[in-house]
Design a protein that fits this description.
This protein is an all-alpha fold and 138 residues long. The chain is built from 5 helices and no strands. α1 packs antiparallel against α2 and α1 runs antiparallel to α4 (95-115). The mean pLDDT is 82.
Length: 138
Amino acid sequence: MSPQGPPLPKPKPIIAGKNLLYGTLLLIIIGFLMGEFSEGWPGLIVMMITIGLLITVISLISLGRKWVRPVLLILIIIELHAALSLLPFFFSNSLVLGFLFVIQVFLQIRALVLLYSGESNAWFDRFKNKAGVTIEAE
């Protein structure tokens, strides 16, 4: 789904949502460095997969891939479900880690709201598939 013609300028909600996801990425790294997943190799592997997945999602959003938003929604729903059981663990180990986790979740939810805003929907809908047919919103 490459855009046809001149590049489409990204609306502010797309840029803001992308930046919030980069902020989440930074919080993940800070949490790891502070000991959130200091359990050895398994924690490092989980962190690397999370970072790789988030970088991939951000890149695909920047390319105008409309299908990545529902994928991000599903990932955030899974994270919210896990957050309910992990939140006491984070706060019992460190108040700072607990607050970092809460901020991370709120940043991701806010980014998702921005990526589903009217301006963002219009921007994603302006991309065309390889046959040159405009992909319309359903």
